[in-house]
Write a structure and sequence with these properties.
Elements (H helix, E strand, L loop, with lengths): L8 E2 L1 H4 L3 H19 L7 H12 L4 H13 L6 E8 L5 E8 L2 H13 L4 E2 L9 E10 L3 H10 L6 E5 L2 E7 L3 H9 L9 E8 L3 E3 L2 H14 L4 E6 L1 E3 L2
Parallel strand pairs: 9-11
Antiparallel strand pairs: 1-10, 2-3, 2-4, 3-10, 5-7, 5-8, 6-7
């Protein structure tokens, strides 16, 4: 279908400088997902996905187990999901997902990141309508038609599928993610996904050059330093 696979996401596991900060972010998210949806990964699909993701990012087992045990105990902080949207250099669009136990602190921290880089924090929904909330599954293969047939037989609503350089990439609405993953890996114990995530894909891109790139890098760095920030998505096309 001809669309090149690109995910405009700042992953905490890849951009945070200190491993302890990465572990903390995963621990918080696992705790919240387990507390809200149950501590059994087989019954709580969101928890299972998050644990798999944490292991891929080399989060130690004891960090995962501690977060689940904390959720089982029923005590602890009450975190809520907070999403902020805004505009960075040259009007590029940014989505910031947070987990917080203090909304006033979090919005102040996020707003400071935007303000100090000459960026603008927008109202809820200001940019998210320009992103597609999708699940992405990529795996080694050549037979795009066979993969599509498998998904169709499982009644999966496929948004897009492509095959490039021996890798098949499937795009589905985020609500179809688990169904698609199960259909593709069913009965294959050693089936491995090169990409396995739910993300926001921009519908358009904004090119950044020169000083805008430096400013944007600073914005991302500041956001990553915020304890409550979990993920950052954007539509910036960096030209260095």
């Amino acid at each position: 279908m001809g669309r090149k696979f690109e995910v405009r996401k700042v992953s905490m596991a890849k951009t945070a400088g200190a491993k302890t900060k990465v572990y903390s972010k995963y621990g918080k998210e696992i705790y919240v997902v387990a507390k809200n949806g149950g501590t059994d990964p087989q019954a709580n699909l969101s928890l299972r996905r998050l644990i798999e993701k944490a292991k891929k990012d080399q989060v130690p087992s004891h960090v995962i187990e501690k977060a689940i045990e904390k959720a089982e105990g029923g005590a602890g902080e009450d975190f809520t999901v907070a999403r902020y949207e805004g505009f960075g250099p040259n009007g590029c669009m940014v989505i910031v997902d947070c987990l917080t136990d203090n909304n006033n602190r979090t919005i102040t921290d996020v707003r400071n990141c935007f303000t100090k880089t000459g960026s603008n924090l927008g109202a809820p929904g200001a940019v998210s309508h320009m992103f597609d909330h999708q699940g992405i599954l990529a795996f080694k293969g050549e037979d795009e038609e066979a993969a599509l047939e498998t998904l169709m037989e499982a009644d999966v609503d496929v948004a897009d599928i492509e095959c490039e350089d021996g890798v098949i990439t499937v795009f589905v609405p985020h609500t179809e993610y688990y169904k698609a993953k199960t259909a593709l890996s069913d009965g294959q114990d050693e089936f491995e996904f090169a990409v396995d995530e739910i993300t926001f894909l921009p519908q358009t891109h904004t090119e950044l050059t020169g000083e805008d790139v430096e400013t944007f890098d600073k914005l991302l760095e500041m956001l990553n330093d915020c304890d409550d920030v979990q993920d950052v998505y954007h539509n910036a096309e960096i030209v260095r």
